[in-house]
Amino acid sequence: NAGVTQTPKFQVLKTGQSMTLQCAQDMNHEYMSWYRQDPGMGLRLIHYSVGAGITDQGEVPNGYNVSRSTTEDFPLRLLSAAPSQTSVYFCASSTRLAGEQFFGPGTRLTVL
Amino acid sequence: QQQVKQSPQSLIVQKGGISIINCAYENTAFDYFPWYQQFPGKGPALLIAIRPDVSEKKEGRFTISFNKSAKQFSLHIMDSQPGDSATYFCAASRNYGGSQGNLIFGKGTKLSVKP
Known about the structure:
The complex is a heterodimer. By secondary structure, chain A is an all-beta fold. Helices cover 0% and strands 52% of the residues of chain A. In chain A, strands 2, 4, 5, 6, 9, 10 and 11 form a 7-stranded mixed beta sheet that branches. Chain A starts with a strand and ends with a strand. By secondary structure, chain B is mainly β. Chain B has no helices and 11 strands. Chain B is globular and about 45 Å long. The interface between A and B is medium-sized, with 22 and 24 residues.
């Protein structure tokens, strides 16, 4: 089992560019989530999904888009990157909404 | 609105000492209180969790103490080791019963254990 995988590990964008952060899990977990981690701010939920075809907003959804076409994949899209989106992004999966979260290794994103 | 307050922000402990990290929550509907451990460059991983029907849970050198009336819970790391140096996050949620909610994380505590 690879667990939760994320690509890329590092990314630098210019303001206004778009990109997709990839996330995949091979544990057949129903629930998947995206968090961002900023110094002194902890982990904040961006979007989450309770199953294929079902997504919902978390605490900080603005500027991000998600979709869940399969159980395995949960990509996060930045439509027009802003410097405020400079952060480390973690994808997680779980068998319950607030159950044990299995986190990926993270993507460090810098927006110039 | 921060529903889980964690302190201290950073902590330095000597090897062999006790590390204590505290969290307070506001929502009395929360019924699941996990602690996550994160090493530099890695994603967080579940360390230990507790439900409010018990006041303490111990796993090896790690203990959660829970005070329901005060709406507080804490992580104690006994005989702290340099390998325990990491960032620790507390969290809370409604995980049981008919209505589940997402985990709400504290802001984290960076623990450094000096040899």
